[in-house]
User: Fold this.
Amino acid sequence: MERLAVGDESALEELYERWSRPLLSFLYGMCHDRALCEDLMQGVFLKVWRAAPRYRPLAKFSTWLFQIARNHWLNEREKKMRRIRPVSLDGSGPDDDGPRLGRSVAGDGPTPDEHAVSTELGEHIAAAVQRLPEKLRDVWVLGAAQGLPYKEVAAILAIPVGTVKSRMFQAVRTLREELEPYVGSG
Amino acid sequence: MTPRHDPTTPTPPDELGPDLLAHVRGELDAARKREIEALLDASAELRAERDALEAALADWSRAGAGDVPRAERRVLEEILATIADEAAERRARAAAASPDVADAADAVALALGQCGEPERERVARLVAADAQLTEAARVTRLLATATRSALALEPRPETLPALLGRIAETAPTPVQFDSQDIPAPSHATPRRLRFLRWLAPLAAAAVIVIALQPPHRGGARVSEGTAFVRTRDDGSGARRNGEWIDAADGPFDFAYGDVLRSGAGALTVRVACGANGDAPPDDGPLPAGAAEFVLEPGAMLARVDAAHFELLTGRVRVTAEKLTERLDLRSGALYVAVTGTRFDAAAVDGRLFVIVERGSVRLGRRGPHADAVSVEAGEQGMASAERLVRGPLDGRVNGDAFLTPRALLRGPRGPLVSDAPLELRATLVAGDGGPVTIAGFDASVPLFLVRLKGPNGRAHEVKIQESMLTTPAPTDSGSGRRDSGWAAAGSAGGGAWRLSAAHPYELDLRIDGLDLEPGLWEARLRYMSYRARPAASTDAGEPGSGIPWLGAVESAPITFEVTPK
Assistant:
């Protein structure tokens, strides 16, 4: 980060190499839209670049990074929702310049590389995660998919560790309910 | 082992919030209305949630009356959604207090590799001994693995060059190691329900105060997040009176009388604290005379004049290190005054809390009982109509360091025969922050628990039930006030109790049938309250006198010996 702070672009490339996949995975868990994820990820790295001179290691770098990513996603989503409010939810309204909710927020269907998982469960779980209530999705994507410790998830989301634990349990319960036919009975 | 219900098996989703809101607004069809009313009859939690919704709607109607501009309906919707979210969270927490669910949550944590060393062994034994928990752990592992696979994407090759291209277009940033991007570890989401009741009156008061000020413009800039500004009409026709305007990017006028609020994410705004000042730069060090405000989601800040801001609700972090004049951040008669520091402030329930990271602030109140204290770096302070206190930072936020009641447990004075009843006295007393209202014993909600730990290390949790009380639960704090709204909620007990130095809350307990195994035992009292305030309550007097404290507190352990029969 010190190299980044003085404008060393190679430091950014190293950071990108290390964190682009986790970030992309996190953002994909949030919005389930491959193209939007790439845009959001760029925005996050841009913010990191701009904020680097002011970075102070008060917490783990990953905590800081995922906080930025989550705030960026929330802000962009809010802007997008405001911009596209007049557009029909089912996409049946008149065409206009703005993107449609169905495409921009819920995704425009899986691309070939989104079919990386061959199991039946794998084909359904990304959509099920997307349908989780936001609070549960945040915790599940950070704690289960990213494997961040509960303590770090709590710091990123600014909630107590006990709440993370409780939401993680609810997320499992909800996903299990949703994916019952694929989860089986061991 | 006793067969248990598997808490991870599918259960009806907890999605009553929207229907409850529709019920309050009279928008349900007759059949669903009957169903919701039946659920309300059966659940004190749900009734409390309904009451909170009704209170918010009533407050909002009052705030919209008279000279106060009526705000956009969307703001109301957000507040109501917040109530619904908080209520769902409380229900989940109450459910999580059940031993079955706690064990299942432990099993989930174990499956995700989230158990620390001492805990892991205990949970692993628990999971191994219980088929339902074993299954919960298996499903968790399966779901986590599948999620990781499903979300694993490779960045497209063109993304990095595009990023570097955008960076090349960015002006070099000056080196200054100073950051507002990471909240301090102690930061937590504000408990918005606590101040919802105060939001509307405060907003109304502030809007009336600032309506008397002449309109001025002030340079400000959004450097992170989305800002919503409610403006006054300046006569030019350019500013839409009373509407929330999205000022999402870049510079904007934060004029005297304007109200700023954050959206779903945190909002960082830099403000020139001088009349007609230019908007400060987007990043880099703050210029002299500028302050940076980081509004947490839901916070609202009004500008009264050049360097006087009114925190209407929520939590804000302020960096103001090179001011040319004193900056006042007020909440009603309470204020934080600074000339150069970094601090967090939260207006909650008629009290103003401050956490000082750097420098120092003057925390005080104006009016006939004007007084102030200095709060230094590494300290937190609380101002209310009757108290000004400060203390070291301890990781708690929103005044919990001062307001949390203290729990005490007294138990057997001598050895206890294993099949004898366990007699205890549970006491709650007010904390340093002074009087605070709590939810009293309620037969329908497990607010009081006794946690027992035996010689084998296994913990037991006993929910205090009405049959365990040797004397009726107190129902009058002696102040002549009892919140009838709680009683109207229909549960046994369930009154609000005003804790003060003169009025602790005490329960005498007798727990039969424990059949404790011989050895040394440890007991703690745990009190947890996540209920919202009913609408019917109209306590007057000290600020916040009727709003129950929410949260959990645990007593220090007591130990006692159990001898064989």
